Amino acid sequence: MKKLLVFGVGLIGGSLALALKAANKDWHVTGIGRTGDSLQEALALGIIDEAASDPVTALKDVDVVMIATPVAQIASILERIAPHLEENTIVTDAGSTKAEIVEQAHRILGEAASRFVPGHPIAGAEKSGPSAAQATLYQNKKVILTPCAHTDPAAIQAIHELWLSTGAIVRQMSPAEHDTVFAAVSHLPHLLAFALVDELAARPDADQFFEFAASGFRDFTRIAGSSPEMWRDISLANRTALLQELDHYQASLARLRQTLEQGNAASLQAIFERASHARNAWAERTQSAQGGN
Ligand SMILES: NC(=O)c1ccc[n+]([C@@H]2O[C@H](COP(=O)([O-])OP(=O)(O)OC[C@H]3O[C@@H](n4cnc5c(N)ncnc54)[C@H](O)[C@@H]3O)[C@@H](O)[C@H]2O)c1
Ligand SMILES: O=C(O)C(=O)C[C@]1(C(=O)O)C=C[C@@H](O)C=C1
């Protein structure tokens, strides 16, 4: 019997529990939450075998601790578990940002930081909570691990194998490289979607706009339905890289605005052709890699 302790049994932690159970019936999963209600829901859905409130007893004989809470909660959870971690317990996380979490883990866990394997599954949705969890969420999706030179290779291997068993494709990066990349391809797009919807919704005649918004608006803004707490925490934790991406985007919008103001059809066409070509080529590559994005 292998024991997994999940802090935060929502979309990401719950999907990991379901995927591991689907791959190997031997996993026993305990959940620790912020509210009793969501743990009861996770129990009822068969995501966890047990709900716990005291991390000290819950940590006994645990093989893997997965922290899948919003990123601003991770440091205080590490502080709660640090004094009670057993020699063989490996700690990992699923946070969407990595540099700040790695720094916190080193500071809080001390020696035991060698058994902290930072991770980030590149799979998700705009839905939250245990009811959104799915056993198949990670199939053919990338998971990024960001260990450092001090991370125990056996711990890295164990977390690598854990994700492989969910059907994921595992890659490694440095925390800084991770945060730079995901500021551009994940965090900025979420900010833009939130900003667009917020601006439209604040207009006195917003209802009319929403009444006629169709699939283009739906595609662009799906992610604005995501958890506000999660995205507040991601934005703040990756603030430096995100501000840089915002600057690039604002410069690009300013160029586009000028082109439009000038009525420069050739320039507009050139910008749209480059973007359309790059977007279609990316979509084809990710589709031909068995849907792995
Ligand atoms: N949603 C995505 O698309 C996605 C993808 C990859 C990674 N992530 C990351 O995974 C993590 C979880 O995201 P999610 O989408 O599963 O969110 P979620 O809201 O579905 O689940 C998070 C759960 O954590 C619980 N929680 C909050 N604070 C807690 C605490 N102090 N102790 C214990 N439980 C606590 C919440 O009650 C909730 O049940 C976040 O760090 C997020 O950045 C999310
Ligand atoms: O599909 C979505 O709704 C997502 O936002 C998933 C998404 C992404 O940006 O691609 C969001 C945050 C994560 O950390 C990883 C994946």
From TrEMBL:
EC number(s) reported in the record: 1.3.1.12
If you read the UniProt record, what top EC class would you report for this enzyme, in one word? oxidoreductase
The GO molecular function terms of this record are:
NAD+ binding; prephenate dehydrogenase (NAD+) activity; prephenate dehydrogenase (NADP+) activity
**Source organism's superkingdom?**
Bacteria
Q: Which InterPro entries match?
A: 6-PGluconate_DH-like_C_sf, NAD(P)-bd_dom_sf, PDH_C, PDH_N, Preph/Arog_dehydrog, Prephen_DH
Which Gene Ontology biological process is one annotated for this entry? tyrosine biosynthetic process
What the entry lists under PROSITE patterns is as follows: PDH_ADH
Pathway, per UniProt? Answer: Amino-acid biosynthesis; L-tyrosine biosynthesis; (4-hydroxyphenyl)pyruvate from prephenate (NAD(+) route): step 1/1
- What positions does the domain Prephenate/arogenate dehydrogenase occupy? 2-290
Q: Which reaction does it catalyse?
A: prephenate + NAD(+) = 3-(4-hydroxyphenyl)pyruvate + CO2 + NADH
Keyword field: Amino-acid biosynthesis, Aromatic amino acid biosynthesis, Coiled coil, NAD, Oxidoreductase, Tyrosine biosynthesis
Which intervals of the chain form a coiled coil?
239-266
* Keyword set includes Amino-acid biosynthesis: yes
Query: What PANTHER family does the annotation carry?
Result: PREPHENATE DEHYDROGENASE, PREPHENATE DEHYDROGENASE [NADP(+)]
What is the similarity comment for this entry? Belongs to the prephenate/arogenate dehydrogenase family.
What's the name of the protein?
prephenate dehydrogenase
List the lineage, top down.
Bacteria, Pseudomonadati, Pseudomonadota, Betaproteobacteria, Nitrosomonadales
